[in-house]
Design a protein that fits this description.
Helix content is about 20%, strand content about 30%. The chain has about 300 residues and is α/β, with parallel strands linked by helices. It is globular, with a radius of gyration of 20 Å. Bound molecules: zinc ion (ZN).
């Protein structure tokens, strides 16, 4: 196999998931040996900053200046993407709760298994790019897991003060969590949501991704270190709506709230019921529901 630096672009169809559409693969093979970085977007089909940033980045990267290999999967769940929704239409499953997957499972479990085997297993470092999707709006967060290795910490330090540091919750089946558990250097990233594309998010992601190449040793040109937000990481979890209703928040992304503080109300005009949504503990608002109507149990806010 030639070791010449080059870019490759292809469609890849996993053999265990022939019922699902092929996914685009972008690869950059550097001029010298080095680490293998995988960056994923579109694990949820209604998130846009990650896919937009990866397509732009693929156009900019110069293989002759790089070591190692960069694999970009701008849209991992193409069936969900084509439906403009978070979940895989065929089985209404969330791909980001399905890793490392199951070759004998449903379409989503098989896709997870195929992506895991083909792309995550051979990578040294993994960055998974998300947004809040149609239903949610996230504070920009650049996260690592408890017990993260030096490579992950170096990647986290590449995200400048447009992002808050994040301790990603330990949630089984999440791509980044499962990759972290098998020893990959991992970063999980959120920006925006609401089904929109924020161009500022694309710019911020591109700056961070370029710094990650330097931090991981794929690029030996010098980049100034990121000017990071010095505050402690946002660390917490999603809180759910206690009842169905129109969610009207009285807090904003980034606000600090005390235990018992009012986050918003859920108004059900047909039943004439208004249900308060309260903070279960002190924390920062790391995300808020974007869709007006919430069912009981839907994600209402992220308290970090
Ligand atoms: Zn997502």
């Amino acid at each position: 196999m030639s070791s010449a630096p080059r870019k490759l672009s292809r469609l890849w169809s996993p053999s265990v998931a022939p019922d699902l559409p092929a996914l685009p693969v972008r690869e950059i093979i550097g001029a010298r040996p080095g680490p293998h970085l995988l960056v994923t977007g579109g694990v949820h089909g209604d998130e846009y900053e990650g896919p937009a940033a990866l397509e732009s980045w693929f156009g900019e990267l110069e293989p002759a200046k790089l070591a190692g290999r960069v694999t970009l999967l701008p849209v991992v769940n193409v069936a969900a993407w084509n439906a403009r929704q978070r979940r895989t239409p065929a089985d209404d499953a969330d791909l980001n709760r399905a890793f490392p997957g199951d070759p004998a499972g449903g379409p989503t479990a098989r896709l997870a298994h195929a992506v895991w085997s083909e792309f995550i297993a051979p990578a040294d470092a993994v960055i998974d790019l998300h947004s809040g999707g149609i239903a949610f709006m996230h504070l920009p967060l650049a996260g690592i897991y408890a017990g993260a290795g030096d490579g992950a910490k170096k990647m986290a330090a590449c995200f400048d003060r447009r992002f808050r540091a994040w301790l990603v919750p330990d949630c089984p089946g999440v791509l980044s969590r499962e990759a972290h558990r098998v020893g990959k250097q991992v970063a999980g990233v959120e920006w925006g949501g609401g089904g929109a594309l924020d161009p500022a998010g694309v710019s911020a992601l591109l700056a961070a991704l370029n710094r990650c190449l330097v931090a991981l040793g794929l690029d030996d040109t010098s980049l100034s270190p990121a000017d990071c937000d010095p505050r402690p990481p946002v660390a917490g979890n999603y809180e759910t709506a206690p009842a169905a209703g129109i969610f009207s928040a009285v807090v904003s992304l980034g606000d600090e709230v005390r235990a018992g503080a009012l986050i918003g109300t859920l108004l059900n005009p047909l039943a004439g019921i208004s249900t308060p949504v309260l903070a279960p503990r002190h924390g920062q608002i790391g995300g808020l529901a974007h869709r007006a109507w919430l069912e009981a149990g839907d994600r209402a806010f992220y308290l970090g």
